[in-house]
Amino acid sequence: MPDSVRRDALRLLDKRRDIENELRHQRDILEANHVTMSTNVLDAEGFPRSDLDIPTIRAAKSRIRYLLHDRELINANLEALLPSALCHGVSLDTSLSSLSKTDQHIPPPHQLAIRSVQRSSPAAAAGLQAGDLLLSWDDLRPLSAIHLSQLPSRVKEGVPIILEVNRTLTNGVDMSLTLTLLPSSQWDGRGLLGCHIVPVGT
What biological-process GO terms show up in the record (predicted)? Predict the structure, then answer.
């Protein structure tokens, strides 16, 4: 029993270490863009600020919120283990130097985001906005940068594409949306979509 308690605790501490490492990385991204979690990324008219890399900033903010939530869960699990550890005389050294060095932190794949949307385009008609994170593209779920090269072959004129996106509102709240994108050449711009999709994130 004491060994299993210690193993569980060290596993949780390893996960918390990885979260802390990635949190530092994501906060470095915000710092490099000269913003914080509370910085308003919209201008006075409600449009994304042209001086900021909106998709990258929103991806970092979204990831930080996700990581903070995970860290809270891990801390709660560690607190739950503490009475059992004390009961069995198990000493839990929570310093980072005591953690296993064999597990290397592997960052998640880059996400895909909408960098820009052309006016009167199919993407605009679908409701896509600059800064939206793409979570799924039809049956591609979860969507990541490794799928970027596959997307052109999946775009057919007149064939609807079901997208799930994450959008960060001006008050910092994340909202998930399901949108239908209908590729079409019947608009004034180039291409069938009218939006620029880029990899962002870690």
Answer: proteasome regulatory particle assembly
φ/ψ of residue 88, rounded to 5: -100, 10
16 vs 75: CA distance, rounded Å = 8
CATH 2.30.42.10 assigned to 112-199: yes
DSSP string, the chain: -HHHHHHHHHHHHHHHHHHHHHHHHHHHHHHHTT--TT---B-TTSSBPTTS-HHHHHHHHHHHHHHHHHHHHHHHHHHHHHHHHHHTT-----SGGGS-SSPPP-PPPPEEEEEEE-TTSHHHHHT--TTPEEEEETTB-S--GGGGGGTGGG--TT--EEEEEEEE-TTS-EEEEEEEE---S-SSSSSSS-EEEEEE--
Helices 2-32, 54-87: inter-axial angle, 10-degree rounding: 160
Evaluate if residue 109 carries a pLDDT over 70.
no
Q: Of 194, 183, 124, which is closest to residue 157 (Cα–Cα)?
A: 183
Structure tokens, 51 = 């001086």
Separation of alpha carbons 42 and 187, rounded Å: 27
> Does 185 score more than 90 pLDDT?
yes
Task: For residue 68, give the nearest of 34, 111, 92, 37 by alpha carbon.
Answer: 37
pLDDT in tens, 90-108: 555 443 333 333 333 334 4
